Task: structure prediction
Amino acid sequence: MTTSSYVYYPGCALQHRSHAYEVSNQAVAKALGIELVELDDWNCCGATEYFSVKRLPAYALVARNLALAAQAGTEELVVPCSACFLNLHKTDSHMRQHPRLEQAVNEALEAGDLHYKPGSVRVRHLVEVIINDIGFERLGQLVRRPLYGLKLAAYYGCLIVRPDNVLDDVEQPMLLDRMIEALGAEAAPFSMKTACCGGHMTQISETTALEMIHRLVTNASVSEADAMVTICPMCQLNLDVYQDAANRMFETSYTMPVLFFTQVIGLALGLSLEALGFGQEFVSVEPLIEKIRDVPPARSKPERRPKQALPMPAMPQ
Amino acid sequence: MNATRPPTFFDRVVAATPDGERLSQCLQCGTCGGSCPSAADMDYTPRELFAMTMAGLEEEVLASNTPWFCVSCYACTVRCPQEIPITDLMYTFKQMAIEAKRFEHRSTADWSESFVGFVEQRGRSFELGLATRYHLFHHPAQVFKMGALGLNMLRHNRLALRPKSIRGIEQLRAILDRAKVLAEKEAWR
Result:
């Protein structure tokens, strides 16, 4: 198998808090014949916080990473975190669209002997790299242990499809749903797939965040999903770690496992739980693993309306 | 238009925001507030805040909790029929409120400023330090509750006890310092 190599920006969350994501990314990449080479001496993207305080320094902070990537001679930068992806992508496109901003950011970068020509590095999310560069067909061929019997809710979160709409449809993306099907599982009809997980609100206004988390888990549960699949460390943290607090606030008892998309791919490729970083999650995945069947289940056909005419409205008795 | 008049609040908001000039095209349709996942907690919806901005109600806009409840999910931005960069405008309001030293939402602003502080010190974020500092200062009553969660995070090996630094921290600081000087001159802030 030929190995293609990508320069990779893991982001702060993957260093520790969501280390499971990093472990599964590397394991799956290896199994797929991809090499993810960490960008040397990258810095934090500033999350949503830096832009809330100062705008130009926030762009400069992000641009240092783009300049380092360009200096390393790469034309593509692969990012597994949706917030980092948005900041890197947004800085590149804003610098391209606003020459005055481009000038100011480069004047700041000069203080560190760096320069960045907007458009020279294409920022890509890891999920898009795996889906587009490997493809559903090849992914399907590599499956060793199909995820038969599982119904999974594809949770894209907010930042990956917005605001530049580079990945998929803004309101109804399907890439991750199709990936789930390619792995042998069934994609649940999850309608809140692009709703926000609450971001940093768990810290500064917990009730605001818990309400959003509750809405998402309830919606996934209504769609009869066995688990939710995320592509962002923030979404995984909020839905997994704060699910218990949301349960207490709303007097519910959900135990919805929340997996990273590479953990789901890894399971289908036949990799071990340990190799995929399982163990950091708060909501146990064991019941989910036990649900995997050896043969594809008979899919219940969607109910169709009877062929006769629509029922006429009737007066209440 | 009188060329010599000082810039209004609206002018300053527009100048500080990339593509901010689109704000003058706001239809007051309310799609932004209807799309917002945290609108229920805001004292004004984004639509109301924009009407107030156009009316020059600087005091009221900067005192509003609306920008601080914005979760930066961009749902409003992608749905706005006039393509107004709503999330970026919320960032502008937050920056202006911090600059004007508005203390109505001091604790929320402090969360952002502490995060920035850790990044400027190390080049990476440091969650344990950030959360400890924030909750001790602003919600001391919650420290035990948050401490329990923190311990649980540690048990699951999800918290780093020590911050990491990048090698090029001096380079990063030089870039940020230059950017701050430039921000004083530029309307971008």
